[in-house]
Specification:
427 residues, mainly alpha, Rubrerythrin, domain 2, Citrate Synthase, domain 1, Cytochrome p450-Terp, domain 2, three-stranded antiparallel sheet, 18 helices, 6 strands, globular, binds carboxymethyl coenzyme *A
């Protein structure tokens, strides 16, 4: 462990601070006693240079364009594991050792997929046009009124149960948000179906139908669709201390119910520059409308007098191609070849946008590359997922990450309430 010296040029005094060696990535200055030692605090709006916690869950190398969950590259995880395996991995620390363990965990999630009858009735209070992210955030908060058994904060089992329960229920809640918004009756979870298949079934199926769940003509839920959704969810499972995860940790730091903290995370994720970008990308591709208009929109994105931003481009940490976007781009092409056809109108515009942006100095100088949201919407559209469910699907994917972060926060005896300072410039 090294040290770093800070010299106050006004007083000539110098102060030494420890450097923390991270197991990967750059060192950090331990500034936790900065104020006590120097009487001065640090200013870092947006926390671009500040670590708020220690974590062992995911690691991002923004220069290389690399993302690891517990030390394993996401590219390996999407090849060999299901989303429920990754949920188990993140919240308990272990990947399933064999198929039996994998199935048992998936089965536990399926059994936890049913919603309390009172919660189901609450869907009625939301207008048809309510955005599902608002409904989800509200209903996850309501879960805290139904499940009060998290109370023993020192008991890790309570937090495990809390995590498994909400991971199990969130697909049902997402599917019901959609069905409620179109006036369709709810479909009970079917525990004979895997976690992902069950979600697609609850989203699309006809209740009590002898036909095979066919809201779109005779189409069944294919293995290929299940595989694709598994991959998409795995890619969203955790991502360091992004805005929504930080929100979950900040709210949890006050000692509130874990589902209240997760509800706040859902609200944070909804924002268009965070998880809401996947929905905005699709709307923006439609707004561009034709490959011949791409140059005009790229010019707008570069114009400092225009608030227009290219959605699905840029990232605080990645200054290289987002590895999640790389996997999704390949997945998009594979699915297209294997029979899940992409909308060529959207695909062609997206490809042109990427081509023009990546050869433009403005984007090159700022390290602006496609992020996870750039291609996910095109694939979700091909999977017949309604556009307003894109961000709720992100919620489904991120749920194990938020739960793992909550468990980690809860286990840390040194965790303190989040309480930043301010640079006061008022009267
Ligand atoms: N289009 C045009 N210019 C951009 C874009 C963009 N999408 N993103 C960043 N820039 C410019 C920005 O104007 C600034 O230029 P300058 O240095 O001349 O002032 C420079 O690049 C740095 O941008 P920043 O806003 O300081 O970067 P940030 O780290 O604060 O913001 C971001 C990161 C993701 C919010 C931003 O890149 C953005 O708004 N992107 C579009 C929305 C989006 O796709 N969000 C999804 C992020 S990935 C999923 C997730 O984790 O939530």
């Amino acid at each position: 462990m090294g040290t770093i010296t800070l010299i106050n040029n006004e007083t000539g005094k110098s102060y030494e601070f420890d450097l923390i060696d991270c197991t990967r990535g750059p060192k950090a200055i331990n500034f936790s006693k900065l104020f006590e030692t120097t009487g001065i605090f640090s200013y870092d709006p947006g926390y671009g240079s500040t670590a708020g916690c220690e974590s062992t869950i995911s690691y991002i190398d923004g220069k290389k364009g690399e993302l690891l969950y517990k030390g394993i590259p996401i590219e390996d995880l999407v090849m060999h594991y299901s989303f429920s395996d990754i949920c188990k991995f993140l919240i308990s620390g272990d990947l399933p050792k064999n198929e039996q363990e994998s199935l048992e965990f998936d089965l536990e999630l399926r059994h936890r997929g049913f919603l309390h009858e009172k919660l189901k009735r609450m869907f009625d209070v939301f207008p048809d046009r309510a955005h599902p992210m608002a409904t989800l955030s509200a209903l996850v908060s309501v879960l805290s009124t139904l499940y009060v058994d998290y109370k023993d904060e020192g008991d890790t089992d309570d937090y495990q149960t809390m995590a498994r329960r909400i991971i199990g229920k969130i697909p049902t809640m997402v599917a019901y948000c959609y069905r409620n918004s179109v006036g369709a009756p709810f479909i009970q979870p079917d525990i004979s179906k895997s976690y992902i298949e069950n979600f697609l079934y609850m989203l699309r199926g006809y209740p009590h139908s002898r036909l095979k769940h066919t809201i779109y003509g005779e189409q069944e839920i294919s293995e290929l669709e299940i595989k694709a959704l598994n991959k998409i969810l795995i890619l969203h499972a955790d991502h360091g201390q992004n805005a929504s995860t930080t929100t979950v940790r900040n709210v949890a730091s006050t000692g509130v119910h874990p589902y209240a903290a997760i509800s706040s995370g859902i609200s944070a994720l909804w924002g268009p520059v965070h998880g809401g970008a996947n929905e905005k990308v699709l709307r923006q591709l439609n707004e561009i409308g034709d490959v011949k208009n791409v140059d005009k929109f790229i010019a707008r994105a570069k114009d400092k007098n225009d608030s227009f931003r290219l959605m699905g481009f840029g990232h605080r940490v990645y200054k290289n191609y987002d590895p999640r976007a790389k996997v999704l781009k390949t997945l998009k092409d594979e699915l297209d070849q294997q029979g899940i056809k992409m909308d060529s109108y959207l695909s062609d515009i997206a490809q042109k946008v990427e081509e023009v942006a990546l050869s433009d100095d403005y984007f090159k100088e700022r390290g602006l590359y496609p992020n996870v949201d750039f291609y996910s919407g095109i694939i979700l559209t091909a999977l017949k997922i309604p556009t307003e469910l894109f961000t709720p699907i992100f919620v489904m994917g991120r749920m194990p990450g938020w739960c793992a972060q909550l468990i980690e926060h809860n286990k840390n005896p040194h965790a303190r309430i989040t309480r930043p300072r301010q640079v006061y410039l008022g009267k």
